[in-house]
Amino acid sequence: MKFSGYTFTLLMLISSMLLSSCASPTRGDPEYAPSKPVSQYGPVQHSDSIYQLESAWLLLEDLRPRRVGDMLTVMLQEKTDAKKSADTDTSKVSSNTAAAASILGAPLTADGRNLLATNLSSNYDFQGEAESNQSNSLTGSVTVTVVEVLANGNLVVQGEKWININKGEEYIRLRGIVRISDIKPDNTISSERIANAQIQYSGDGDLANSNEQGWLSKFFNSPWMPF
């Protein structure tokens, strides 16, 4: 069976839409699993001493996260507002008249009408207007863990939160780079202070499916639709 180029493109597009619709995130993704702390003191030494260095808590120690496996609460305070408008109005009017030329001192006429007289005129007018508005807001909190400590002391953090509500699940995923000095004494930080922040908020289930277009509707609303 042979397919034309357009039919093959249409089949590939439909297949990609079906595959993308099935690739929803799952709970317990290893990529977002919390990192376990790494011991900095080597194997635990079981001695007769009550004080153990690897498990000691110092009363005056700064408890803000600074090691792999430490936890940090991110306060989501994302808000974006974008507005763009354009208004264009142009017009141009031109007129040109060429005097009648003569041949051997006499004008070239036919039925009393001068054939070499020329009068050109043009009128151009264009108007265009466009406006776009977009607003997004996300508030809440999610606790993440430190997965890497960079050479300059900054922390790479990531984590997720899943909430099961009635007929579906909602999840928040976050990943980014945190500077220790931006962490507050209560071990929280604003999402606005996270570098290279990757925040994903969505849902799965009956409620999410009811708010999503089917694959055929997506095709008719995509740039691939030729009409």
Note down, in words, how this protein is organized.
The protein is mainly β. It has two domains: 24-36 and 62-82 and 135-227, no CATH class; 84-131, no CATH class. It is 13% helix and 46% strand. It is built from three helices and ten strands. Strands 9-1-6-7-8-10 form a six-stranded mixed beta sheet. A two-stranded antiparallel ribbon has the order 2-3. Strands 4-5 form a two-stranded antiparallel sheet. β2 (102-103) and β3 (106-107) form a beta hairpin. It is elongated and about 110 Å long.
Entry keywords:
3 helices, two-stranded antiparallel sheet, 227 residues, mainly beta, 10 strands
Give a concise summary:
This protein has about 230 residues and is mainly β. The chain is about 15% helix and about 45% strand. The protein has 2 domains: about 25-35 and about 60-80 and about 135-225, no CATH class; about 85-130, no CATH class.
**Helicity range of the residues?**
10-25%
The coarse silhouette is elongated
Q: What is the rounded distance between the termini? A: 27 Å
Total number of helices = 3
The counted number of beta strands is 10
Give the strand line-up of the largest sheet. Answer: 9-1-6-7-8-10
Q: Which structural class best describes the helix and strand composition?
A: mainly beta
SSE topology string: HEEEEEEEEEEHH
- The low-confidence parts are none
Largest sheet: 6 strands, mixed
Tell me the domain tally.
2
Strand content: over 45%
Summed over residues and divided by their number, the pLDDT gives a mean of 76
Whole-number radius of gyration? 35 Å
